[in-house]
Amino acid sequence: MFRLGIIEESLEHTGTLDLVRPYFFSQRVEHVPEDECPVWHTNEYRVPDGKIMEVLDVLKDEVKPTWYIHAFSDSRLFVVLRGRCFAVSPHRDKTWDDMIEYGVKTAEVERRFLENVPLHV
Q: Within 10 Å of residue 2's Cβ, how many Cβ atoms?
């Protein structure tokens, strides 16, 4: 089972959430007044191992530039950036290097966010 975190405001089309609706677990609302989206709806989903790649493949085309989505289990971490999905170690190591570089240069995500992808939603 994977825990998948999606901030609704990070998606090009909120209708994409229909794909993961069966796996919905919880929602947290955060007020981020300094952001261009001052309210974030952070959803957690519990996605079966056999479905996670199908879900991530769709999300890589739906996540907006400057945002990322992540999914994790006890042994795996996926980071979804605009146009690509990266499988990296759950703990920061050299497997993160390509993801960080792509994220900064291509997906326009701030380096500080990609250097500290959390293992929580």
A: 22
Q: DSSP for 56-102?
A: HHHHTTTBPTT--EEEE-SS-EEEEETTEEEEE-SS-STTHHHHHHH
Domain locations along the chain: 2-114
Using pLDDT thresholds of 50, 70 and 90, give the confidence band for residue 103: very high
16 CB-near residues (< 8 Å, 6+ apart)? 58, 59, 62
- Confidence grade of residue 47 (pLDDT, cut at 50, 70, 90): very high
Residue type, 23: Y
